[in-house]
Amino acid sequence: MEKTPPFSILMREGPKKRPVKTVKMAVIPDIHTTTIMKEIVREHQLRPIVLRFDLDKPRSDFEKKGLDAHYLMHDLTWDMLQTLKEQYRILEEIDYEIAELEYLLLPIEQDLDILEVMLKIKAPSVLPFDEHDDGAEININIGEFFKGAIYHNQRIQDLHDEVSEAYRWFNAHFEMIYEKESWIDEQLWDDIQQIYSNYLEAQVDIVSLDRDQEEFKEALSQVIELQDRYNDYGQVLFASFNALQARSEECYRRTEIVNKGLDELNKNLK
Predict the structure, then answer these.
(1) What's the half-sphere exposure (Cβ side, CA atoms, 13 Å) at 84?
(2) For the range 84-88, what are the long-range contacts, defined as Cβ-Cβ under 8 Å and sequence gap of 24 or more?
(3) If we measure between CA atoms, which residue out of 175, 179, 188, 213 comes closest to residue 76?
(4) Which residues have C-beta within 8 Å of that of residue 35, sequence separation ≥ 6?
(5) Residue 123 burial by CB count (10 A; 0-12/13-18/19+): exposed, middle or buried?
(6) Rounded CA gap, 120 and 70, in Å?
(7) Does the reported pTM lie above 0.85?
(8) Other beta carbons within 10 Å of 165
(9) CB 41 within 8 A of CB 49
(10) pLDDT of the chain, 270 residues: tens digit per residue
(11) Phi first, then psi: what are they for 52, rounded to 5°?
């Protein structure tokens, strides 16, 4: 009878959460002007970007660079939102697989307890029987038992590949967060800061830019909250997989010993 091969993987501990850095913007002075401003709405999947401009002023290079940074922040945050949602969905699928494999392992472990007692590998005291179970007849289909163990082993190996792929993205993402504190480079905040520092020369209305930046930060904080939930979920899920794998490996080891014991029993009966 074919033996189930042992299966092993060593997962690294997930990164601990580190608070995302808060960038402080310059204090905006109270500006009184009779200049007619044109409001321009730039539709974006994350949120509409609404800014006012004094079109009588020229667009300076520092302003173009700063506004490009503002728009790019929206692009990067929207992309990260979609990626985090997808990675969270993958964790949910893995969670379901872990629960199913835990359930499938129970009858295998119960049959192992009985077979180990029958083969005198373990004492009868390991079985949850009492005086009311004396004379009870127990039937185990050996072929189905090994078939179930092999099936479970294959499912664990398949799940290992999924968990490894999910963990690679998880680990790489939070290593990046630890190093950079955000998917938004610090330089982009600095580029926007140049508009605040030179607001008198800027075509964009600095009050509208400040409002729009604050609304963007609210959207950004919601994505960061999702990132934190994903981090917590991943930590728990990878630990659950490690526990399932350790339990399964012990089960496969016991199955190999039982298989050898059955072979010896068959030889003695011939």
Answers:
(1) 22
(2) 84/223, 84/226, 84/227, 84/230, 85/226, 87/166, 87/169, 87/170, 87/173, 87/230, 88/226, 88/229, 88/230, 88/233
(3) 188
(4) 54, 56
(5) exposed
(6) 72
(7) no
(8) 12
(9) yes
(10) 344 444 344 444 444 444 444 444 444 444 444 568 899 999 999 999 999 999 999 999 999 999 999 999 999 999 999 999 999 999 999 999 999 999 999 999 999 998 998 888 877 765 665 554 455 566 788 999 999 999 999 999 999 999 999 999 999 999 999 999 999 999 999 999 999 999 999 999 999 999 999 999 999 999 999 999 999 999 999 999 999 999 999 999 999 999 998 888 777 776
(11) -110, 145
- The tokens for 36 are 């007619």
Q: Token pair 């401009």 is at which residue?
A: 53
